């Protein structure tokens, strides 16, 4: 419970100074004198989350691959999430920048902060974190009504999905997040949490790094019953072709090689609900084939 002094201080921040405040994912409180009117989103996921918060019309800058919703494609690009065109960004006069904790160049974001441009850092690591991020962005943008409604829609949808699969038969799963070098996720990663939610058993879940590099040999040794992968594009199944060359592996033998559009599962946005539903459906197919005792068609 907050102390009386803390409650008074919070009230002063909101009322005396007319500010809107929210705490970012680095633990820093960001306060604006008024709701943001010109927002720069510095990752594709940040762009989606700002739009989900109801503040899409206030977005004046995005980065490469910010392709959803379609309206975001018409917004000025200021480079990539790893290399920003600061001159172009500053010229667009944002009054709020949405940064990515581990994905954006820290020196460039620090430069923005030094110039007095507020930077709000995000990096959702849980389902609740996605909802919380939408709510905090809505608070800073003054779009609470639509933002909080969207956050609740996602929150309730994920709860319903978790309830539906809480007693599902475990399926050993390998999720491929990248091709060269070959990479996966551990159980602490948001995708790892999707695997668990759907009743999957992440065969690399105990590795220390969030996104560890692995080898073909380690995948063969783990012998997953299902392999799910994204790819270089929303309809590119090429990453799964390498595993078709290993008929001794359970996933290949049972034809449990599944493609999931990467933007539905690899971005911490409300579309993760759609991606999770698809992920769970693929594992249900693997369970059906296990019970039938024969391979089927994806």
UniProtKB/TrEMBL annotation:
Residues 38-291 form the Fe/B12 periplasmic-binding domain. Keywords: Signal. It comes from the Bacteria. GO terms for biological process: cellular response to iron ion. Residues 1-18 form the signal peptide. SUPFAM superfamilies: Helical backbone' metal receptor (SSF53807). Pfam families: Peripla_BP_2. PROSITE patterns: FE_B12_PBP. This is Vitamin B12 ABC transporter, B12-binding component BtuF. It comes from Marinobacter nitratireducens.
